[in-house]
Amino acid sequence: MDVVKIENLSKTYQMGQTRLRALKEVDLAVSRGQYLAIMGPSGSGKSTLLNLLGCLDRPSSGRYYLGGSDVSGMDDTELSQIRGKRIGFIFQSYNLIAQLNVLENIELPMFYQGVSAIESSRRARELVEMVGLGDRMKHRPWELSGGQQQRVAIARALANDPVILLADEPTGNLDSASGAEILGILETLHNQQKTIIVVTHDTAIAQRAQRTIHLLDGRIERDEVN
């Protein structure tokens, strides 16, 4: 089953008198449990595609089906609900809330979905153990290393059991050892049949995925099985 299916997807931005076609009639299908990397030079459309996949933006034309639902025509309220329930985000800069401890950061997405305090606490403790930070539950982000913060971000992304995980340069701010640990966690999640889409400029990271698409000038130039 295709978890992600985009058909003839295009995105055009109006910049003053100039129309910029960031994505041009892209077709892509990602099956459940697949680990996909997206690569391409600056300006190739990587960020635009990620924003569309993450329901942070709407296409100018074409269709996007996520988990069988056509999300391409949804309004902002509907897209917000989809993001909260079906998509887990992992950012290069972690995006943790400094005032909250590790458990509270992981619980937050569940709070917004109306999960009970008892259930969100149970789930957060389960996730924090899964990413190997059981002894750091009460720490604030500034008390953690970059690698530990990214582990918290991964646990938070998994809080609502999303349909897809989207990772934007997830090791970009990490040293090689911490980066390798994060990639190891992603591989473990892939082995658990999580659907993962990673945007990266690093060929070595992309080669750890099952499949790599290469974007150029808003189109898919190559689609390779690794």
Describe what you observe in this structure.
With 226 residues, this protein is of the alpha/beta class. The chain has a single domain (32-61, 74-225), classed as P-loop containing nucleotide triphosphate hydrolases (Rossmann fold). The protein is 34% helix and 30% strand. The protein has 7 helices and 10 strands. It has helices at 46-53, 76-86, 102-112, 117-130, 146-157, 176-191, 203-206, and strands spanning 2-15, 18-31, 35-39, 61-66, 69-70, 87-90, 164-168, 195-199, 211-216, 219-225. The strands form 2 sheets. It has a 6-stranded mixed beta sheet, with helices on both faces. Helix 6 links the parallel strand 7 (164-168) and strand 8. Helix 3 packs across helix 4. The mean pLDDT is 94.
Task: Describe how the helices and strands are arranged.
Blueprint: E1 2-15, E2 18-31, E3 35-39, H1 46-53, E4 61-66, E5 69-70, H2 76-86, E6 87-90, H3 102-112, H4 117-130, H5 146-157, E7 164-168, H6 176-191, E8 195-199, H7 203-206, E9 211-216, E10 219-225
Parallel strand pairs: 3-8, 3-9, 6-7, 7-8
Antiparallel strand pairs: 1-2, 1-4, 4-5, 9-10
**Average pLDDT taken over every residue:** 94
By secondary-structure content and strand pairing, the structural class works out as alpha/beta
| Spans where pLDDT lies below 50 across 5 or more residues | none
Q: Taking Cα atoms only, what radius of gyration do you get, to the nearest Å?
A: 18 Å
Question: How does the major sheet shape up?
Answer: 6 strands, mixed
CATH fold title: Rossmann fold
Tell me what portion of residues adopts beta-strand conformation. 25-35%
CATH H-level homologous superfamily name = P-loop containing nucleotide triphosphate hydrolases
Number of H/I helices = 7
The domain tally reads: 1
N-to-C SSE string, H for helix and E for strand:
EEEHEEHEHHHEHEHEE
- Name given to the CATH architecture: 3-Layer(aba) Sandwich
Task: State the name of the first-level CATH class.
Answer: Alpha Beta
The rounded distance between the terminal residues' Cα atoms is 20 Å
- Shape annotation: globular
* Sheet with the most strands: spatial strand order: 6-7-8-3-9-10
Q: How many strands?
A: 10
Question: Percent of residues in helical segments?
Answer: 25-40%
